[in-house]
Amino acid sequence: MAIATSELKAKIIESLNLQDITPEQIEDEAPLFGAGLGLDSIDALELVVMLEKNYGIVIKDIEEGRPAFKSVRTLADFIEARRSS
Amino acid sequence: MSNAFIIATNAVTSADVAAARLGTRFGRMDLASQLSLLAVEPFAPHFDSFARDRIAIVLAARAGSLPTDVAYWEGRDAVGGLSPTLFTYTLPSAAIGEIAIRHRLTGPNLCFVGDGHEILTEADSLLQTNEADACVAVFTHVVSPALTQKISLPEAAHACAVFIGPNGPGRAGFGENRRDMETFCANLRALKFTK
Prior knowledge:
Largest interface: A-B, 18 and 15 residues
Order of helices and strands of chain B: EHHHEHHHEHEHEH
Strand content of chain B: 15-25%
Number of helices of chain B: 9
Structural class of chain A: mainly alpha
Strand content of chain A: under 5%
Number of strands of chain B: 5
Radius of gyration of chain B: 17 Å
Low-confidence stretches of chain A: none
Oligomer: heterodimer
Order of helices and strands of chain A: HHHH
CATH topology of chain A: Non-ribosomal Peptide Synthetase Peptidyl Carrier Protein, Chain A
Low-confidence stretches of chain B: 170-176
Structural class of chain B: alpha/beta
Mean pLDDT of chain B: 85
Number of helices of chain A: 4
CATH superfamily of chain A: ACP-like
CATH class of chain A: Mainly Alpha
């Protein structure tokens, strides 16, 4: 079953303790790091923890997850692919 | 203080943190960093009077990073592992980094664990030795509910800060300086001896 991006956005906000931002304000295709949501390397590690905690997905090599962390859309696709593999 | 001037002072509590809006990044910080950042926030307009690499930061945290250390330790069995974000705050000097980043202050910095009395002396020393033209001095005292179960200190969440610059032409008279200094020292006393 495809993961809803709205659900994923809510989990990102919760796990990173982002203030003053709602899931609706995060665009599916906007970059998570750098110019978009402005996340940094610590946030990337926190997202790795979030994936294991919420979806049972373990990323042992951060390079493996790098393409998945481009946007909410790519992260949702990554979760879906790992769940069905 | 020999020839330094108190430009501004401020004191905050956890109630101020709850009402604060300092951007999306604020929420991930530990309480000591949040309090430190809030205590310094009103000084921002004064920073433009100095070169940013000539503004020092001196911080004393009475309980060090113990509240965050305890929170980190208690998360050791969490699914997915310990929080990487929390780990970055298991040093009391993390608050200095947050202040430096937000206000782009790149002068020297010092961090103490313990009561805050030495921060005024150190701030003054930095000015007298010409290592800095101004100094932000911050004292924080955070004891979380979890920490009260481990050490004999009452719960606390306070910070006070002072911005110190060189005395000289254009500054207000000594009376103003003295009044602000007394306010800051009263804050220090209050943080030390009250909940």
